[in-house]
Design goal:
Layout lengths: L1 H13 L3 E3 L14 H14 L4 E5 L5 E5 L2 H9 L2 E3 L6 E4 L5 E5 L2 H22 L2 E8 L7 E6 L2 E6 H4 L1 H12 L4 E5 L3 H11 L6 E3 H9 L6 H7 L8 H9 L12 H15 L5 H4 L2 H20 L6 E4 L5 E4 H7 L4 E2 L5 E3 L3 H4 L19 H9 L14 E7 L5 E4 L2 E4 L10 H11 L7 E3 L6 E6 L5 E7 L3 E3 L6 H5 L15 H13 L7
Parallel strand pairs: 6-9, 7-10, 10-11
Antiparallel strand pairs: 1-3, 2-3, 4-5, 5-6, 7-8, 8-9, 12-13, 12-14, 15-22, 16-17, 16-21, 17-18, 19-20, 20-21
Length: about 525
């Protein structure tokens, strides 16, 4: 049977490591294709090939057979499962000998937490602050597992079976303690999930991704990259499992969790914890304190930006992208952190040339209505007393002879007159044209010192039949996202977007930014 499984494994590997069960057949020694052959092969894989394959049911598409990488097979074969432990529902060992405890029973939850706290307090009193490593699975959408690695082993808490709130409440004394340093790698998503589902604010956390960036300059280094730089063993199945998760495979919400998935989760913190012994030799106490402050800053940013990153540009390193939290702590004067957005529109200048009948809803009132008030009121033919328009979001005004006057605000069309019978008159277009002066050969006109654009539509006799007004805005700071490309590259930049989305505004601000240091010709 082992020889047969090796043949199947070789066939799956030769076909991309992922093969539909119905495709495995018509090979010497393999079951023939067809329903009976598929059922027989599925049964054989489940019974004899657990260390070689994982099966994924994809509904009508059938069953996908995934070949497990060789290095992950070794970890799987070396795992020793011990049922009915005095502390947990299941204990097992990884290939490196690390003991792992999988907690699914509420009766054991408090016992395990007390055991961890006691171990940490004993170690702290003997040799100073103790490192623990923390990771989560399912974040940021959910919180399925919380893993903690200590010198005694790995503890995996099943948040689905135990309850997210109960697990987080039990672990709060550990996570809020200042006596232990919590190592996390790229804590954005995990910190957001812990706060969202368990109201946990991590204290004395250090993001090892920030440590790696301080040492080697890579702000996006992954866990295995960090371990490789330290010449430590790397997670054997990290890329394989992450690839499956990115392809849509759900490893964490179904119970029971596969043993290989539990081992993957355990190795996330076990291999990270190996770095705890190296960290004191890598950086000084002063740098460690700065990394702690940077990590705290990153925790706050993760809450503010829903798990997203906060970046800046490192002026010392050719305006390369860097972590805002790290640069603000170690080299604050060498970072460009963006600018506060300031919008300048002078939209009142546009209103000054419009006929008075169209100004009623465009001048600033004592009380403004929201855009949804106008959308709802116009649908129900009730616009009286709705207030005036939120002009800060005004993008276009369209006046065509014989049609109702209208404007566009936040992708919604709003009429400028309450009277449905009111349409734009030829005299009103002539009044606007007179106020503007002469249109150019491209049928465009403007106001002196302003960014607003007026476009004319003419008939066959060259008479102006309609005018479209595009409100121009100058947004200081909106080109900050391009700083690394503008200041340290001679490559071209293509900006794509729908009409009115702000392409010209970005180009204008980018030009202003470049002109601060370079000679710019537009």
């Amino acid at each position: 049977m082992e020889e047969f499984m090796d043949k199947v494994y070789k066939y799956v590997c030769e076909n991309g490591n992922n093969v539909n069960l119905c495709q495995i057949g018509d090979k010497p020694g393999l079951p023939r294709r067809g329903p009976e052959g598929q059922v027989k092969l599925k049964t054989m894989i489940e019974k004899y090939g657990k260390s070689l394959f994982t099966l994924e049911d994809v509904g009508k598409r059938g069953i996908i057979v995934h070949a497990i990488p060789k290095n992950h097979q070794k970890a799987k074969k070396a795992a020793v499962i011990c049922q009915n432990s005095s502390l947990t529902s299941k204990d097992f060992k990884l290939a490196n000998g690390t003991t792992c405890h999988y907690i699914t029973d509420l009766l054991n939850l408090d016992k395990v937490v007390k055991r961890i706290i006691t171990s940490l307090s004993t170690t702290t009193s003997e040799s100073g602050p103790q490192f623990i490593s923390v990771d989560c699975e399912g974040a940021p959408i959910d919180l399925q597992l919380i893993q903690i690695a200590t010198r005694d082993g790995v503890y995996i808490f099943d948040c689905q079976r135990l309850g997210k709130e109960k697990v987080c409440h039990a672990l709060k004394p550990i996570f809020s303690s200042k006596s232990s340093i919590k190592l996390m790698h790229d804590l954005h998503m995990d910190a957001f999930a812990l706060k969202k589902f368990g109201d946990i604010d991590m204290v004395s956390a250090v993001d090892t991704q920030l440590l790696a960036e301080f040492l080697w300059g890579d702000p996006f280094i992954a866990l295995n990259g960090f371990l490789s730089c330290l010449e430590l063993p790397t997670h054997p199945s990290k890329e394989f499992v992450i690839g499956r998760i990115k392809s849509g495979v759900d490893l964490w919400s179904k119970r029971p969790i596969a043993q290989t998935s539990l081992e993957f989760a355990a190795m996330n913190v076990s291999f990270l914890h190996n770095a705890a012994h190296e960290i004191p030799n890598l950086v000084s106490t002063d740098v460690m304190q700065k990394l702690g402050r940077a990590s705290s800053f990153r925790l706050k940013n993760a809450m503010t930006f829903n798990g997203s990153r906060a970046i800046c540009f490192d002026k010392k390193n050719g305006h390369a992208i860097a972590s805002a939290e790290l640069i603000s702590q170690v080299r604050p004067h060498e970072g460009f952190f963006g600018e506060i957005l300031r919008i300048e529109s002078n939209v009142e200048e546009v209103f000054s040339i419009l006929p008075s009948v169209y100004k009623k809803k465009l001048v600033k009132p004592n009380k403004q209505a929201s855009i949804m008030d106008f959308v709802w009121n116009q649908d129900d033919r009730k616009v009286e007393g709705a207030g005036t328009l939120p002009i800060e979001s005004l993008s276009d005004i369209v006046l065509d002879i014989g049609r109702r006057p209208q404007c566009w605000i936040q992708d919604s069309r709003i009429f400028l007159c309450d009277d449905e019978l009111k349409v734009v008159q030829k005299a009103e277009i002539k009044e606007i044209s007179t106020n503007l002066g002469r249109f150019g050969s491209d049928n465009r006109a403007g106001l002196n010192g302003q960014l607003h654009r007026f476009s004319a539509m003419r008939d066959r006799e060259d008479n102006v039949m309609g005018i479209t007004i595009r409100v121009g805005r100058n947004v200081h700071g909106n080109a900050a996202m391009l700083t690394d490309l503008l200041m340290n590259s001679d490559k071209s930049i293509l900006i794509l977007g729908e009409p009115g989305s702000g392409k010209t505004t970005i180009v204008r601000e980018a030009t202003r930014k470049l002109a601060e240091d370079k000679n710019v010709i537009v």
